[in-house]
Design a protein that fits this description.
single chain; alpha/beta; Rossmann fold; 7-stranded mixed beta sheet; two-stranded parallel sheet; 10 helices
């Protein structure tokens, strides 16, 4: 199966490319990488001194967890002949990307960690274009979705979703979902990394499912209720002040409290490939 892979530039985004490259049923016909912000972004100068400190703690801990869990050897990217790098968000849905996608003649597309894909790019992609969303749909849709289960004290609702993309945000057919195995001592970022790794371990199942669907002309099963279920988060919903709850009030100890039964969390109904 010929695929296009579209990702962000952070290691957590490139894991999906790494796994697809290793799958002998896949030919990577094209790779589009969107150059994301700094891995440890700088805080706004207007922030309170205390909030700035929490900001630094938060993003440094994220970086430390990702270095620990994401040991992908990414040297293979140099071997990919058909690839482009997009440095500006305004160019992501532009003519260069559109022409590149059309030139690949791909059967499917895998996506993670890039901006929202809009028309005419969206219409040019294969019908089976699958996004790896770092949240359980429909409970947590939109942006920064690995953060919200901790902010709302629902670590049991941390997980990932492979789903078909469409013109709305996180409303396409759900293909497969995963939740991580949480252990004592897991920080918020440890748990998020484990959630992604759990999804990546199952990507071969997703590939086989798509190959089987295309072979048997199985149509995409659109669930129109997903648009109105759950909550859609925007980037603007996240405020640095929210870090007070995670690090000052709960000392980034939410997983332990959950495992001890001191925090009660809903258990999700997952959709799985059979």
């Amino acid at each position: 199966m010929k695929v296009i892979v579209i990702t962000g530039s952070h290691p957590r985004n490139l894991g999906i490319l790494h796994k697809l490259y290793q799958n002998n049923k896949i030919e990577i016909a094209g790779f589009i990488m969107f150059e994301r912000e700094e891995i440890i972004p700088k805080p706004n100068n207007n922030l309170d001194k205390k909030i700035k400190k929490l900001w630094e703690i938060h993003f440094k801990k994220r970086h430390e967890s990702e270095k620990k869990y994401y040991d992908f050897d990414l040297d293979f990217i140099k071997k990919l002949k058909n690839k482009i790098i997009i440095n500006d968000k305004k160019d992501f849905n532009g003519l260069e990307v559109l022409n590149f996608i059309k030139s690949t003649n791909a059967d499917a597309c895998f996506i993670q960690g890039c901006p929202i894909i809009e028309d005419p790019i969206l219409s040019a992609l294969p019908s089976y274009s699958i996004n790896l969303h770092l949240g359980l749909i429909p409970y947590y849709k939109g942006a920064i979705t690995a953060f919200w289960p901790f902010y709302y004290l629902e670590p049991g609702m941390l997980g990932t979703t492979y789903h078909i993309i469409d013109k709305h945000v996180d409303t396409g057919e759900i293909i497969h979902q995963n939740v991580p195995t949480l252990d004592y001592g897991d920080t918020m970022h440890d748990a998020s990394c484990k959630a992604l790794l759990s999804a990546l371990r199952d990507i071969d199942l997703v590939v086989d499912e798509i190959i089987n669907r295309q072979k048997n002309n199985i149509k995409i099963n659109k669930d129109f209720t997903l648009k109105n279920r759950g909550r859609l988060f925007k980037k603007s919903d996240w405020k640095p002040e929210m870090l007070i709850k995670i690090y000052s009030e709960y000392k980034d100890n939410i997983v332990d409290l959950f495992l001890d039964g001191k925090i009660k969390s809903e258990i999700p109904n997952l959709i799985k490939i059979k």
